[in-house]
Amino acid sequence: MQPNNLAANFKQPPAQDAAAKPKPCCVCKDEKSARDECMLFSTAADPQEGCKDLVGQYRMCMKGYGFSLPG
């Protein structure tokens, strides 16, 4: 008889949820690329402010796939 391991249920998401939701690295590639280029090559004094629109587009795209990014 094996002991009941209640934590085992939390180690892996159910197979149906994992198959339905794509990985964060596989979505919004164009938006991420544009955001990264802007941040890396910006000549603005504050690149974060200068790239705010592209960051917002990336966040909205990720939200559309069910991912929540920190603010």
TrEMBL record:
Q: Which UniProt keywords apply?
A: Chaperone, Copper, Disulfide bond, Metal-binding, Mitochondrion
Cell compartment(s), UniProt: Mitochondrion intermembrane space
Biological processes annotated in GO: mitochondrial respiratory chain complex IV assembly
Task: Specify whether Metal-binding is a keyword of the entry.
Answer: yes
- Domain of life, per lineage: Eukaryota
Identify the GO cellular component terms for this protein: mitochondrial intermembrane space
Predominant location of this chain? mitochondrion
| InterPro entries, A to Z | Cys_alpha_HP_mot_SF, Cyt_c_oxidase_Cu-chaperone
For binding Cu cation, which residues are annotated in this chain's numbering?
Answer: 25-26
Region of interest: Disordered: 1-21
Residue ranges with Low complexity bias: 11-21
Q: Name one GO molecular function term.
A: copper chaperone activity
Q: What family does this belong to?
A: Belongs to the COX17 family.
Protein name, UniProt field: Cytochrome c oxidase copper chaperone
Q: Where does this protein come from, organism-wise?
A: Friedmanniomyces endolithicus
| Gene (name only) | COX17
